[in-house]
Amino acid sequence: MATTTVEGAATHAPTASEYIRHHLGHLSNVHQHGPVDFNVIHYDTLFWSITMGVLGCLIMWMAARKATAGVPGRFQAAVEMLVEMVENQSKTIVHGDRSFIAPAALTVFVWVALMNSLDFLPVDLFSAAFRALGFGEPHHRVVPTADLNGTIGISLGVLILMLYYGIKIKGLGGWLHELFAAPFGIYMAPFNLLLNIIEYAAKMVSLGMRLFGNMFAGELLFLLIALLGSTATVFGFAGQVIAGSIWAIFHILIVFLQAFIFMMLTLVYLGQAHEGH
Question: Which residues are listed as membrane-spanning (predicted)?
Fold first, then answer.
């Protein structure tokens, strides 16, 4: 069996399970203990989510800066179609002031789509780059939406907006009354409160889990397809090229569909905050 030396210690070539575990590991400050550990910070998720957020803002700023009243170019036309699509959806769903909600939904769509698109990068690109720079092979995951911490963080922001608009539209007293009185009347206040808290939590968790589940599954499939090439056979190489190409094409739909679904659910939840039970 071939061996390599890392920091003076002989190690064997990774098995398929070790390869997958390594690529699914995060660059973090400490080792995580248990399923929930609030001391852990995933630096890779923070870096790529912030980077894609800045890139998304830059793209929209460039589109606004270069917008003309004449015949639009392809870039301006694409952005205008996207803005019009979000605006039409927000008109249908949100019955109230949309001066902040529509731009927020557009931002969510662009941000999530860019983060999802990082899944198109070759799975071994960063491992090879780290080795070339002399950093060894640290854990690093490039897709923030394949990290549950990232998707729950975004959905937590949506929950905060839901609470904000609920209080803003109905007033603090009206919102509290609805929290305790809906849907079964004030005499069932304890049950109503529990039910409404569960509803808020379920919306937040389902929003984040849906995006995470789809992107994590897509990332795992890319890793499994990449392992076909490690068989060093004609079938393995052919399977990697054919399966990889087919899945990459299909994944384009998933990447933008999940961004659209996340945006639509954001609009639906904010629209519900404008309405009473």
Answer: 46-64, 100-118, 148-167, 179-200, 220-239, 246-270
